[in-house]
Amino acid sequence: MNKSFFAEARKCAERFCKALNFNPEKSDHLESKVVTSYLFGLLTMLGSEMDADGSEIQASLVASLVHVFGFSERDASDLSAHVIKCTERERHPAQFTVIERGLEGYMEYYRTGKDAEFPKDIQSILDIMHEFSTVK
Length: 136
Description:
Layout lengths: L2 H18 L8 H21 L4 H14 L5 H13 L7 H18 L6 H18 L2
């Protein structure tokens, strides 16, 4: 295990969570899924830079959801399993796109210290998803 990756992953999750002022008690299921998918994108890009493998990235995601975001272990495990399934673009195009936004957010916001852009990015994703969910 790459301990420096886990330390950096926690810092990344902490900055993201702080920027969002996220509270799992006050978020709906869609918001939790979007935040988890975006965080997975952030951690995947960080892991790529630090040569972490997939299991380390997934472990850091679960640990971040529990210890930083305050999800229960069961909810964190369920959300993590869901986001892993969403890496299949054909089956989960919307959540796959959110993961891609997290990859981009890592480069555009995290690396440049523009953490204030995270809530705007998440809100724009949620607005679009809510808009399309009401279209019939």
